[in-house]
Amino acid sequence: MIYKAEGEIAADVYAAGHYIYPAYLIRGAKKRLMIEAGINLLGPTYLKDMGRFFSDETGADYALVTQSHYDHLGALSYLKEKYPGLMIGASPHVASLVSKPSVLKTMNFLSGQLGDYFKDEIDAATEDVTIRPMKIDWGLKGGDIIHLGGCSCQVFETPGHTRDHLSFYFPEKSLLFPGEALGNPAGDGTDVKVEFVSSYTDYVDSMEKLCRLSPRTMAMSHMYVYGDDDVKRFMGRTLRATVAYRDLIVTYLDQAHGEIDAAVRQMTTVEYDRKKSVLMERNAYIANLTAQIKAVHAACGSS
Questions:
Q1: Domains of the chain: total
Q2: How many CB atoms lie within 10 A of CB 208?
Q3: What integer pLDDT is reported at residue 302 of this predicted model?
Q4: Under a CB-based contact definition with an 8 Å cutoff, are residues 150 and 29 in contact?
């Protein structure tokens, strides 16, 4: 079963905002938890959905994010302003980034590039959704457990996409929030986009760690939720795609005699310019590709 990340996805679990950038809301008997805070433009929408799905205006007790990228924590400062008691949890490395003016400037610039895409679906024009310096209240690490009453959230360190990446698992619900540790869905959800950036080796280790959990439901940070047999299918697919993508990069490195810049240029020309199958801005693609080629080069060299 594959379905869009919208509305109720499990008992007392909801996807808020927009299915491309969902924020997941989990209601326990005593506490309420939000996982991911998407993009800043959707801050008012997350807030509205929080009131709708929680049936009141008290908001969430905790907001946890999987990583330091702008499209996973973009609405945190906005939501913290609306709910001052909201406790924010993330990797300690995230805390070192979200107070830096240069980092926040880049995050706000990247967020602004999404304005045209969402202009017909959201209305943030009347509110200031600028990503501002924020305090991370809770530096999370692997093994931490957040008790909500009737269910609990287990924290897993899953580096590879970013070095500060975390994933969250609810054993009582057999529900996994892998972030981008297992890549991202593509197309209709039956395809996958490989997402290692910081380390290929760590990425594979993290995938294998999450696969061993064998969750019944898996809610991705972008687009789709997987249930039952489709969880296992996606996990197998992303493992195979990751190895295949590594092999493709190794081929380009071999052709470039191990020179990273040359491999980036050649792979961009063929895979991006000629095939025109990558749905990403060209400069962003090159930046990601450079990091991926460096990660593969570090893991296994050019042969």
A1: 2
A2: 11
A3: 46
A4: yes
